[in-house]
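[Q] Does anyone have a clean structure-token version of this?
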Amino acid sequence: MFKTVKDRVWVFDAEWIPDPAAGKLLYDLPDNTPDLDVVKRMWKEGGATEEDPTPYLKTVVCRIVSVAAVDRFESGRKAKLHLLSLPRDLEDPEQVSEKSIVGTFLDKVGQYKPQLVGFNSASADLKAFIQRAVVLGIQAVEFCRRPNKPWEGDDYFDSRNSEASVDIKDVVGGWGKATPSLNEIATLSGIPGKLDVDGEEVAFLWLDGKLDEIVAYNEFDALTTYLVWLRVAHFGGHFTSAEYEVEQQLVRELILSEIEGGKVHLKKYLEEWDRLKEMVE
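[A] Here you go.
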């Protein structure tokens, strides 16, 4: 169980796909090879079977196409929430580039030093950002800065001695089938799990040019991870039952505000949350 909830918490989730550029380099494919053919080759080399045609690939060969986070900032005893997502402008080629997404995220983490929270983030999301930053030639000095001793500062590279990064999966997981998926623990808790899109579909959405659907899916997962984190934090005594209710209301207000701001896809998330809460209560 994590021991602390810092004044600033970013509960985040990232989406990535097999990187066609990586596939062409690794398998010496012609530059004019269609992206779909490259991706299929990467899955084949990664152990694709009839039962599992899109196997999980090493994160270093995958391109990060989106990241979303719920930012909780506590000033005094009052918390404020913001929903952050990259790329912000889907029509701007610069913002859509992986170098911009990875570089901006790591730069802002290094600047604000939030407590990062994810689900399977220690071995997947966070490592994906580090590996891809190295591949892309990105410098992230403040993110990489490490204290001389664990208690002297944040350390995003040492999850054993620092709580700068918290992986919910490590908190609730066990061996093999004892470890729940995010969808399972969320749904059983009355929190929306998977809605219209599954993680295995992200690559095909990207190939079809549907980045807007990927970002929407990414924001769903960030909200879900945040609500699960709240529940685990309540379980650990970081929030009283009354405070936990207030924190959930803040999420509801955040979603309503984002809907008013034009993110109409979040209406579906709110409706599903209401439906599940009614079922489990």
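[Q] Thanks! Anything notable?
[A] The beta strands are 8-18, 62-75, 78-86, 115-118, 165-167.
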